[in-house]
From TrEMBL:
It comes from Ectopseudomonas composti. This is TRAP transporter small permease protein. Pfam families: DctQ. Belongs to the TRAP transporter small permease family. Residues 26-159 form the Tripartite ATP-independent periplasmic transporters DctQ component domain. It is found in: Cell inner membrane. The complex comprises the extracytoplasmic solute receptor protein and the two transmembrane proteins. It is a multi-pass membrane protein.
Length: 173
């Protein structure tokens, strides 16, 4: 069980690195677009669309990365008072919900992305980027990754429930 959790979270970590790289590229691209626009009075549509396209991997791959690192917003004022086994039960319910929602949305978004691919969707703007399905591919990928992180969290919660004397995560070295 531990090996499966590690494999999933290694994938989440790797794709989270891609999201972090996209943040850097986005910052550089926005800076370049501002310099080009105000320095040379040129505003390439493709570069502006690329800014929007970079937001997809940042948000959709980053959501699983944030969940893996427990940097998401949680309301812990009740949860922290629970016994470790009760915390594991709450974590199991949350993880199962995450898994089901993520995998369902990945399935729905797959059809959306494939429809875009089938019609050869591109930018409606002259000079815009072609192959819009490539950016839409981050929808099923991101939600599938979210569902996978839900599976890892489910396994971790099950491990906590099945351990005879579970120890809270904060107490682990």
């Amino acid at each position: 069980m531990h090996a499966v959790i590690n494999r999933i979270e290694q994938l989440v970590e790797t794709l989270g690195g891609l999201a972090r790289g996209c943040v850097l590229v986005l910052v550089l691209l926005v800076s370049a677009n501002v310099l080009i626009r105000y320095g040379f009075s040129v505003s390439p549509v493709a570069l502006q669309e690329l800014e929007w396209f970079l937001i997809s991997p940042i948000a959709l791959l980053g959501i699983s990365y944030v969940l893996k690192h427990r940097a998401d917003v949680r309301v812990d004022f009740i949860y922290e008072k629970f016994q470790p086994r009760t915390q594991a039960a709450v974590d199991l319910f949350s993880a199962l919900s995450t898994c089901l929602i993520g995998l369902f949305l990945a399935w729905v978004c797959w059809h959306y992305m494939m429809q875009s691919y089938a019609i050869g969707e591109g930018s409606p703007d002259p000079g815009g980027l072609p192959h819009r399905y490539l950016v839409k591919a981050f929808l099923p990928l991101g939600f599938a990754l979210f569902g996978l992180q839900g599976i890892a969290d489910t396994l971790r919660a099950l491990k906590g429930l099945l351990t005879p004397n579970p120890v809270p995560e904060e107490a682990l070295p």
